[in-house]
């Protein structure tokens, strides 16, 4: 009996620049323009967010300005009895 030949292998999926060139070649001109305009708008928007103008600080309402918390009071000295007690150091 003759042994059967192994089935032929399926071609490996294409990767890399050659596949991208094929994909870009199959796109119509309007799709290429839409992709290009979308990429341009994305880059301009990100640039505006990072390097755009800074917002002005908020103006206080009716002249109110927050002064922050009050200062911490100084510690008072330990209490002293009015007369000498034997157990008081």
Notes on the structure:
By secondary structure, the protein is an all-alpha fold. The protein has a domain at 18-52. The chain is 37% helix and 0% strand. The chain has helices at 17-26, 29-51. It is elongated, with a radius of gyration of 40 Å. The termini are far apart. The mean pLDDT is 82.
Rg, nearest Å: 40 Å
SSE order, one letter for each helix or strand: HH
Structural class: mainly alpha
Largest sheet at a glance? Answer: none
Number of helices, where a helix is a run of at least 4 consecutive DSSP H or I residues: 2
How far is the N terminus from the C terminus? 114 Å
Q: How confident is the prediction overall: mean pLDDT? A: 82
Name the beta content range: under 5%
Low-confidence runs of at least 5 consecutive residues: none
Oligomer: single chain
Principal-axis shape equals: elongated
Number of strands: 0
Roughly how much helix do the residues carry, as a percent range? 25-40%
In short:
The chain is mostly helical. It has two helices and no strands.
